[in-house]
Specification:
Blueprint: H1 15-25, H2 31-38, H3 42-54, E1 58-63, E2 66-71, H4 87-94
Helix pairs in contact: 1-2, 1-3, 2-3
């Protein structure tokens, strides 16, 4: 048997999707925690949140010293291959649903 190709580090979802999933799991999460969960810098997380907000996928509301994030679940996904799906469909497929 031939040697297998070296394993490259990649995932099926983008960091934008990962951040969105974190915000969906906890609307009051601190971005430092999101960065740790996704495995990116806090600054990269801030830029992604700004992208998501500018595109209308999330709304950020200041609550005291923290932010609260609301997701527009009816928003269509951006890429032509997945534009027939909404954020709600994406979250339904990959969001962690602990219903015990």
């Amino acid at each position: 048997m031939a040697d297998a190709a070296p394993v490259r580090d990649w995932t099926f979802l983008t960091n934008h999707a990962h951040v969105l999933l974190c915000l969906a799991a906890d609307a009051d999460v601190v971005l430092r925690e999101v960065a740790q969960q996704v495995g990116i810098t806090e600054r990269a997380t801030q830029l992604i949140v700004a992208d998501l907000e500018a595109a209308g996928y999330i709304t950020r509301t200041r609550v005291g010293r923290r932010n609260h994030y609301d997701i527009d679940a009816q928003r269509q996904l951006r890429h032509p291959l997945e534009a027939h799906c909404t954020v709600e469909v994406l979250l339904g497929i990959v969001a962690d649903r602990d219903e015990a």
